[in-house]
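Hi support team,

I'm opening this ticket because the web form for multi-chain structure prediction keeps timing out on my end. I have pasted the exact lines I submitted so you can reproduce it. The total is 723 residues across two entries, so I didn't expect it to be a heavy job. Is there a limit I'm missing, or should I split the entries? Thanks in advance, R.K.
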Amino acid sequence: MSALGAASGTAATLAGGGRPRVFLVDDHGMFRSGVRSELSGEVDIVGEAADVNPAISEISQCLPDVVLLDVHLPGGGGQDVVAAVKAQHPEVKFLALSASDAPEDVIAVIRAGARGYVTKTISAAELVDAIRRVGAGDAVFSPRLAGFVLDAFAAVPGIDVNRASFDPELDQLTAREREVLRLIARGYTYREVARELFISVKTVESHVSSVLRKLQLSSRHQLTRWAAERRLT
Amino acid sequence: MAARAVIADDGHMADQADAAGCWDAAAGQQAASASRSAGSWQGSGGYESSARTADRAGRGQRTSRLESLGIRVSRGPASGRPLRRQVEGRLIGGVAAGIADRTGFDVSLIRAALVVLALITSGFCAAAYVVAWLLIPAQGADVSIGTRALGDRRGIGLAAALTSALVAGLVIASALQASWVSSLAFPAIVCAAGLVLIFRNAPEDEREYLRELADPVARGRGASRSRRLLRVGIAIVLLVLGLVALLSGHQNAAALLRPLAGVLLLIGGIALAFGPWWLRAARAAVDERQARIRAEERAEMATRVHDSVLQTLALIQRRSGDPQQVTKLARAQERELREWLFDGRAPGSMDGQAATVADGVRLIQQDVEAQHGISVDAVTVGDCNLDEELTALLAAAREATVNAAKWSGAPVVSLFAEVEPEAVSLFVRDRGRGFDPDAVPDDRKGLAESVRARVARRGGAVTIRSAPGAGTEVSLVMPRLAADRMPRRP
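Hello R.K., no limit was hit. The queue was backed up. Here is the completed structure from your submission:
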């Protein structure tokens, strides 16, 4: 919390090249202090919270650029925090951070409005990079998230296309998007993906953002059914 | 119970003819109960005599049969020990075996006598058997089941509930003037209540034995085919007997309706009056069972946490000076715990055999991380069962991963598997030192070729992309025969 005062002066936006103001939500104090010490040189930690309700009220107060959000919290899922804050302050960006692999939880947080998902085993440099990207409005897909999304959108044309509410714009990934996700799942960075597909990094980013939008807006049964099935298997 | 004993005597019999004789005895038993049903509960002369006759016939048959088998009816030496139930030689509760041991008579003889007595006394002997079972301690035990049952308040409640249910049935029966039913009333109630107490309070080994005895009736699912058939057979016999009993007294079916309606009303009234109490007793029994299951689960969980997490934490404390070891231990533990929590796979239960592609990828990740101390970042999309081709593909992918772990020098290897309707693809990628595929030393080329050849033999393809300083990526693709292998999760 001590960083609060210092940060209030740095109301600079990221576009201005300032350090991103980051808020930590995680129920493990050890993990929070670990992240704090790892990131302290690169970003401003403007606050932290251990549970859903304190997180919502404090984030609404200090309005950070990026919230680093644990998917699992004692008082509910991380998606509750995203939904509550987004309703009031759509400009706050969320980056989900989790040790858990349960895909349905990760997808739930993304669908609530988080801009990306990384695992807690990520290196400090990569985490800073991911925070900057999310802060700048990009989507951050770890290999694991790319895998989840491919799984969730796996094409079953016979079932979906004939459905009345089927929306090809939202309910399907384009071949290119699938290619990009596949490369990310294989461990390629955005730059490597760009080189591999002979496109610019900007184009890769726009593909990923479009996938994120589909993930958040698609109403298709597939996503919910997929999540339900994952729980069973 | 009587039927049990008769059938069990079958075990001593050698040939078909005797087995048939055994069924004769069962038929005799039916005749006896039928003749009882003709007589009244008070016991008219007719009842007495007809029962005796039937019984004498049964006894004559039995003795001659026993002798024809060479079972000696003569008395052996009595043990002189106090009367104890013989758990070893038991058929049901071991009471007959205990009496045989005490008196020196052959156990089959005692059993036959008990069955005959049960028939003569219209069930009182069976009740006496159950009471003896309750009150006589088993060989080697300090206290009888009855003594233990005194402390079992739930069991007593359950027995009382059962008794009241039976009494209700008997009230209905006597209202219908089916006096033969009420003649069985007392023994039936004693047997039912006694068996409840016995089952709840018997020591674990005895209970296990009882469970086995009751198996064909109690467990429909998972029982073998013959047992299921036996159960269905018994059910059909009971249904037919019930129908015959219902229809025998009435010429036309319509005349049945009024008494039946009366029975239903009675049952409804009794259920309303006693229902809540019965339900409570049954629910208490269920609750108790669930509490026991929960306690067992907690104990199991504690054991597992101790075996895995606590052990690892102890190891980490001892090796705190070696960060690489600590990371390795932590990663392995994290993965194991996560598998247990989210996939329901218990730590240490992995037997090294994968059933699906996702399982296989997880195994590769686990083994390579454990053996080579690097991280394997594994992502799987879709899943399907393994067949010969896919097993070969996974084996090749494992070799490629191990290769990357050994030679690339990279701290992380990415492993990506995708199951599609037409093909299964695997990608093994590292950001290590890489190599020039055209200038590979022979020993490494051999390995690459073995990976390539292994997959090619089954109709798949392997591509290796690498450049010095840019890392290596091995892609392995195996086509699927689309028709018969649909993805498990579309």
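A quick check on our side: The beta strands of chain A are 21-25, 44-49, 66-70, 72-73, 76-77, 93-98, 116-119, 140-141. Let us know if the file doesn't open in your viewer.
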